[in-house]
Design brief:
- The protein is mostly helical.
- The protein folds into two domains: 77 residues, no CATH class; 105 residues, no CATH class.
- The protein is 45% helix and 0% strand.
- Helix 1 runs antiparallel to helix 2 and helix 2 packs across helix 3.
- This is Cytoplasmic protein.
- It comes from Aquimixticola soesokkakensis.
Length: 248
């Protein structure tokens, strides 16, 4: 349901100039009923000047009278043809001033670890512009030497669920295109939840890789079977019993 502009100021005007119930005003303005009661008590929106919805072409006076006569009647916002499509307008995500200096670091992280994400997706995730993303991709950004890649989720620029959804969508698109992916690229296309739940693959340490079949001798298993098992006397140079008897 569409809400009036300056909803709190509109609620102030309706509380002061009508006999509508708190629930009717709350439903129309998109507020909580207790918040409207706080406005009536003077605890909320102190100093806020009322905004007349009738004079500003948001509500008909006949609609107000109908709602005053019936407590269960819900106010309907007046149709404004000029406002059609306003809610569908899209733009870059708003980023607070305190976090805007962190955007280049998050862009570099996304470009480095998820190069499959398009500039439009990166722009939507962290609320930046395509020229900035392109400058960081091409390493022509004015401060590229001092930028360190940092996860945008850790910086609070986007949610983990949003990042995972973007990565999964990129994975589905790449699979649909039939593009060949390396193991590293495939791991990058996994969401955080999937990668954490996956089992570790057994790997041969790099230091001994290729030595698992290496042997210093050319003997085969058959040759080893033919060899007799040495006894203890072969390891110790013990004198024979006959030699002892000769000495005595």
């Amino acid at each position: 349901m569409a809400k009036p502009i300056m909803a709190k100021a509109t609620a102030v005007w309706l509380v002061d100039n009508t006999t509508l119930s708190f629930k009717q005003i709350a439903d129309f303005c998109g507020l909580h009923e207790l918040e409207v009661q706080g406005i009536a008590d003077g605890d909320v929106a102190a100093g806020v000047k009322g905004f007349d919805p009738v004079a500003n072409n948001q509500l008909d006076e006949a609609e107000i009278k109908k709602a005053e006569a019936s407590p269960i009647h819900k106010l309907k916002l007046k149709f404004n043809a000029a406002a059609v499509g306003e809610e569908k307008r899209r733009g870059p995500r708003y980023t607070p001033l305190s976090k805007r200096q962190d955007r280049p670091a998050s862009i570099l992280w996304l470009v480095k670890f998820h190069p499959e994400l398009s500039d439009a997706v990166v722009s939507k995730l962290v609320g930046t512009t395509k020229p900035t993303i392109q400058a960081i991709r091409e390493r022509t950004h004015w401060n590229i030497a001092n930028i360190q890649p940092i996860d945008p989720v850790a910086l609070g620029l986007c949610k983990q669920s949003e990042l995972d959804a973007a990565v999964q969508k990129a994975a589905a698109k790449k699979a649909a295109d039939g593009a060949a992916m390396t193991d590293d690229e495939r791991r990058k296309l996994l969401s955080t939840e999937q990668s954490l739940g996956a089992e570790d693959e057994p790997r041969m340490p790099a230091a001994i890789a290729g030595l698992e079949t290496f042997s210093l001798s050319n003997t085969t298993e058959e040759d080893e079977d033919d060899k007799s098992v040495p006894d203890a006397n072969t390891f110790f140079n013990l004198p024979d019993a006959s030699d002892d008897d000769d000495e005595n």
